[in-house]
Amino acid sequence: MYSPSAAANSVISTEFGSRTFVYEVVGLRQNSITDQMSCPIRQSGSVFITVPYNRMQQEMQRITRMGGRIVSIQPLNGTKLTATSTDKTSKPMAPTKEKVDIPVNIYRPKNPFIGKCIENYELVNEGGVGTCRHLTFDLSGGDLRYLEGQSIGIIPPGKDKNDKPHKLRLYSIASTRHGDKLDDKTVSLCVRKLEYKHPETGEHIVGVCSGFLCGLEVGADVAITGPVGKEMLLPPDEDANIIMMATGTGIAPFRAYLWRMFKEQHEDYKFKGKAWLIFGIPTTPNILYKEQLEEMQQNYPDNFRLTYAISREQKNSEGGKMYIQHRVAEHAEELWSLMQKPNTHTYICGLKGMEDGIDAALTAEAGKQGIEWSDYQKQMKKAHRWHVETY
Question: Whole-angstrom Cα distance, residue 90 to residue 87?
Fold first, then answer.
């Protein structure tokens, strides 16, 4: 039997005393008290509550009053604490290494979750290029959960030219783990409609899945798989520095990060580091989530920096179009300095073509200090501080 009071007393004498902990709780009853919690009860029965050390005893008592039972206590560094004894000696808990709980493939293609579209609106303003939609799906009735930086699969209806069901397409999740409604019951995507003219036939081609999603009516069903992905996860360190480089719909995971950092203000995560987004787009009307991004920059000037690279409107130092690699080159000294800090994570998401330009800019800056960028980049990857998802 797990003893919350014994656990709390034992933690006092350990090296974990000044840290923040995650409680895994089961058995909470759905009632008027738990309805007021900011981390709603999932159908899986488990609730994860992040608690600073100085509130541990208070939180344990609150959980007990609500009928809950703590099955594990885990510091944010991934070392799980389990009670080894509940006798009067209150022996210290034994730390055992355990990976962070990352949900993967809760729903697979053969048995997808059928969600409903509850929101579908245009993100590109008048005068912009193409179509990009923000879609939100209702997840209630299932057990799909996810983390910022993960993706879900969408299976478009119908069959392909070989009379076989369409294969799923992966899309980066654009919402925090709690969803746009903050009720743990939704997931959102940022989807650009693929459209082009066939080079030989001149036929107007529309992407199978992107066309389906962009034209999806509110109330329509959608087959969802996943989640998948561990490369782009946001670190749990609330003091981390986060550098984000995005083109187009590559903004999706970064929207999730920024909403969690600045708009959500959830009790289990209070961001105190510095976030810097460098966003490449063709025109000003194509700045996805523009109003929200600039509102966060205005409200959190000490923690959030926003830099645009608008290719068809701005010029680089050589008089050509302004792409994201040119912005990186302009700010290379600051970026390089920030990357020297061990708690800085760098993320790249969007078109694969931008990687070479970014590497070139950072190679030049690192070279000023006699450092080989490719070697340093490998060190960052090994330390899980360099994250790339391009297509």
Answer: 6
| DSSP three-state, residue 360 | helix
pLDDT, one tens digit per residue, over 211-258 is: 999 999 999 999 999 999 999 999 989 999 999 999 999 999 999 999
146 is catalytic: no
Note if 389 is an active site residue.
yes
- The total of other beta-carbon atoms located within 10 Å of residue 150's CB is 25
Whether residue 287 sits in one domain with residue 221:
no
pTM over 0.85: no
Q: Give the end of a domain, one of 97, 124, 151.
A: 97
In a domain, 104, yes or no: no
The string of pLDDT tens digits covering residues 250-267 is: 999 999 999 999 998 777
Q: Which of 144, 136, 135, 140 is nearest to 112 (CA)?
A: 144
Among 146, 323, 349, 376, which one carries the catalytic annotation? 349
Q: Which of 38, 98, 196, 391 is catalytic?
A: 391
From 10, 72, 90, 172, the catalytic residue: 172
Q: Could you report the per-residue pLDDT of 150-203, keeping only the tens digit for each? A: 999 999 999 888 898 999 999 999 999 999 999 999 999 999 998 877 777 778
Question: Catalytic site residue 349?
Answer: yes
Q: What is the C-alpha to C-alpha distance for residues 63 and 69, in angstroms, rounded to an integer?
A: 7
What is the pLDDT averaged over residues 64-82?
62
Give yes or no: residues 273 and 384 share one domain: yes
Catalytic residue from among 171, 257, 289, 323: 171
Domain that includes residue 20, residue range:
4-97
